[in-house]
Amino acid sequence: MDINLLKQQVENIIGAPLPLKTHSSAVQVTRSEVSQLTDREVQLIELLLTAANEGAKPLVPSKREDELRSIELGEWIQERVERKELGCPVPDRMAVKPLLKVPMLPFLLSGEKSSGLVIQFSKLNKLLRSYFGGDIVLLPLKEDWLILVSEDLLEDLREESKEGMSAEREMLGELCQGLYELITNEWVGGGFYLAVGDLVTSDELIVGSVVSLSETLLLGRMFYVTEHIHLPWELQLERLIYSIPESQRSQFIEENGIHLSVLKDEETRTTLEAFFQLDCNMSETAKRLYVHRNTLIYRMDKFKQETGLDVRTFQDAVLVKLGLLLYKVTKRT
């Protein structure tokens, strides 16, 4: 309430001028011509002061109101995803919309459904704000959490890293690793999985981003069961494999001599996966598996005898890599 208006109203009540002395944070009444006020006049003045004080308080939503607003937008996004209504702009009625400062970097956090762990919105929100060093938008979905981070908060990280797509992806990978460790330290045993997506440059792209992030988590957990951080640019081949009709998957495996019985052997599968992860480097693969290089050569020769494919050659390595990915999909469908 305006102080001059308040002064005028009090003067009308007491019927006398009210000299004021203004300070930076307060207003002091220096004197009054009235020697005594009636009880009714005192009550009226108290009501005026209370109303003025309430009007001066900033309208800051409570933590519970923040959560309810986030839940509202999360439910709207979930509904659009289930209806496959991509490209829908966030309605103006959503109270969170002014906070969607594009471009934003989206993360999707998922936990093991069997863990029974309950994550509190306020606790996770506080943790994320501390990690990113500023305001973020946290939206609870049906089973996951969507985290939207303003690109402005990432500028310091970009300045520290080199330029280029490779450096950008490396920076995002490290960011995910740090975020994953932070969350797992806070909620031990939650079995969390984390994915990051492309920058969201418009609120119309948020629903589509959630769909893409969900697919990234699905592919990552299908092909790399021991990993917890899944990056879309590392799953491009897996995305292509997953799109192949089921009827053609087993056919490809059999036609190229990669028999299912061979891939069912855990030692063979582990050896091949390590070999491909380390860019087909024999020495590094032997170190990773804690075996002598001659032992690794023996395993490769044995695989060649059983399948006719030598993964030490580029052509056969490509076929075996595809066959291994197809086997993983076939085994889980």
Structural write-up:
- This is PucR family transcriptional regulator.
- Residues 270-325 form the PucR C-terminal helix-turn-helix domain.
- Pfam families: HTH_30.
- A hairpin with a 3-residue loop joins β4 (136-140) and β5 (144-150).
- Helix content is 55%, strand content 10%.
- The protein contains 14 helices and 7 strands.
- The protein has a 5-stranded mixed beta sheet with strand order 4-5-3-6-7, sandwiched between helices.
- The model has no long low-confidence stretch (mean pLDDT 83).
- The radius of gyration is 31 Å and the shape is elongated.
- The chain has 3 domains: 3-56, no CATH class; 63-238, Alpha-Beta Plaits (2-Layer Sandwich), CATH 3.30.70; 244-332, Arc Repressor Mutant, subunit A (Orthogonal Bundle), CATH 1.10.10.
- It starts with a helix and ends with a helix.
- With 333 residues, the chain is an alpha+beta fold.
What sort of overall outline do the alpha carbons produce when their principal axes are compared?
elongated
Give the biggest beta sheet: 5 strands, mixed
Which runs of at least 5 residues are low in confidence (pLDDT < 50)? none
Q: Order of strands across the biggest sheet?
A: 4-5-3-6-7
Cα gyration radius (Å): 31 Å
Strand content: 5-15%
| Structure class | alpha+beta
- Helix fraction bin: 55-70%
SSE arrangement, N to C: HEEHHEHEEHHEHEHHHHHHH
Kindly report the average pLDDT value: 83
Distance between the termini: 67 Å
Q: How many domains, as an integer?
A: 3
The top-level CATH class of the largest domain is: Alpha Beta
Quick one: how many beta strands?
A: 7
CATH architecture of the largest domain: 2-Layer Sandwich
Organism: Paenibacillus anaericanus
InterPro entries: CdaR-like_regulators (IPR051448), Homeodomain-like_sf (IPR009057), PucR_C-HTH_dom (IPR025736), PucR_C-HTH_sf (IPR042070)
Domain PucR C-terminal helix-turn-helix: 270-325
Pfam family, one: HTH_30
